[in-house]
Amino acid sequence: MVGQSPLSPGEGRAAVLLQPFVHQVGGHTSMLTYDEHTICKPLVSQELSFYESLPLAMRQFTPQYKGIVSVHLKKDSLGNLTLIASPGLGQPDSCGRLDSASGDAAVTLWHKRKWSHTQVTKSFKDSCSGKMLLRTELQYHTDSLLEDANGKQPERKSHNPWGLHCHRQHLNRMSSKHNENKLHQFLLLENVVSKYSYPCILDLKMGTRQHGDDASEEKKARHIKKCEQSTSASLGVRICGMQVYQADTGHFLCKDKYYGRKLSPEGFRQTLRQFLCNGNQLRTDLLEPIILRLKALLSVIRKQSSYRFYSSSLLIIYDGQELKESVDHHLPYPKTHGTNPSRADVRMIDFAHTTFKGSKSNPNPTPYDGPDHGYIFGLENLIKILQSLSEGK
Fold first, then answer.
1. Residue 289's Cα: distance from chain center in Å?
2. Domains by residue range for the chain, with CATH
3. Helical H runs in 305-372?
4. Residue 9 has pLDDT above 80, yes or no
5. How far apart are CA 231 and CA 291, in angstroms?
6. Residue 250 half-sphere exposure toward CB, CA atoms < 13 A
7. Which pLDDT score is estimated for 251?
8. What's the predicted TM-score (pTM) here?
9. What is the pLDDT of residue 96?
10. Example GO molecular function term (predicted)?
11. Tens digit of each residue's pLDDT (9 = 90 or more) over 318-367
């Protein structure tokens, strides 16, 4: 979907057409694909400050920060809105190019109200290098993300549409507030799932408190209520989104934040188990590497004095592609030791409300001493639940 425009030596980089990140499973900010290994999101000064002063010990648990890029709205000849990243400081060298002549023709179909099965299938396959298997009858509607008339949310086995939902809302907000020429600053971050063929992703909202220090009284009350009515209060963690590849059907099973908010502690445990089930068997081979990585993160968080990770998320990621010998010979997955990141990974994301002593964006933050005990409480419970699963309980 990116037009190639050869540049002469010394000429500035051409613009990059941004597309929705197809593996976004949670959150409300639109995540966009910049290139195969890079995503971008609207810049929030508090999050930038976090990445710029990130403690060395935490870097293995966060996406790599790659810089800042300017982004503007563009309307094509049909009136469809797109986002274009302009060349600028901090841009990765490996960027796609889009020349002005090909701009309208290269506009993606993400921004239309409905999506025909042929268009959606082609677009996802283009974005995922043919790695995704999709149900061809998929159509995207905002209301498909919500409950039905009986208050139930059907299980969707197509690709997760949450990123498209966020992207459409984001485009509508931007177009209603700003003209096309206004430049917006976006953060460039590592795409932490780019190395996986079938990325299975669990987005967990961590901690017993979700509102930032800057929240209004209304927002503060709203977040407190969400925590009290969900596993955030009882476990210090709640599910905000999930996609897990089902090897038996070739589709992704998806859950969103509305599903996660309603779970009891036992429901949370069962969903965590479901996340590790590929439709054929429980991926017990992943439990040890995930637990070891969570324990390593717990050790790091315990040492971070003054940090409060309000409203941040934790991603647990693994590749849903079955090992060839398991498919061919119906053998169990081989036991692995250590924290091989190619098998499973754990990453902290979303730091727009993270506060810490010495923050550039907030030189006088609310003073906090010691580590973030709400976050630690969530990590400890998550580890306990995974350990019980590994013991067959």
1. 21
2. 13-91+163-194 (no CATH), 195-321+341-392 (3.30.470.160)
3. 324-329
4. no
5. 20
6. 6
7. 92
8. 0.79
9. 37
10. inositol hexakisphosphate kinase activity
11. 999 865 444 443 444 444 334 444 589 999 999 999 999 988 887 777 88
